[in-house]
Amino acid sequence: MLIFCATVAWSAEQSQTAPAIQWHKRWDQAMELARKEGKPVLLDFWATWCQPCREMEFHLWSRADVVALAGKFVWLRVDVDHQPEIAQRYRADALPTVVLSDPWGTEIARRQGFGNADEYLGILMAMPGDFSEVAPWQARLAANRSDLQALREIGLAYHRMKLFQASTEFLGKALATREVRSQPEVLAEALTVIGWNSLKTGNFKAARKSFERCLREVPTHRALDVTVYGLFAAHLAAGERQEAEPLLHRLESCCPDSALTQRARTDLKPVVAQGH
To answer: What is the pTM of this model?
Structure first.
């Protein structure tokens, strides 16, 4: 009886929130709408037997501050029992699973389970709501998956949008093209931005690897100070002061007038003071 009541209450709640959050049920239609409007897609993987999914409906999707974001996304609810192919496509192995993607299906973020509604809200608020600037490049990429300029522009756009993982994904594909070997400035740019993406997400080892590869393969380029400072910052963030100090000297030698050289000097001062 209690389960039946909870199910009825849940259905009633869905009816109440439906006008605010318009859930789509077909993946292809949701993605088409997202591309048309330049909006991100929120995919909610659920099942009728999933109790945490019901809790999420009560405590997250019906919240006023979440409903206020209704116009920001295209909302897609996927019943894994009826659409297993979509669940498999997005690796929704546990329920509930929420996936945020761009309008072309690139995953931006995911969360599994439900415990902290505020954590979900933070992710929803941080997600960019307008991907329209990327649409022309995505169209070019659809025609040619190895279009270096399209891959570069999408990767840089996602870096500016602070979608660091997605940025690295596209810039990594740019590095895999044959054309990039004949464009050292583009090669250096991609490696440097990938390094900064890793640094921003706390992966210092990957950041160092990308910066070092850039300096090895393109030892001089227009944004050399950005690369060298990135490597400096990665070492310093990892507590590797001895490795960082020579990079300050390199910045002072190659880029004495760069603001990043002065920034590196400032970054080292607190560490030096602690040593005394």
So the answer is: 0.86
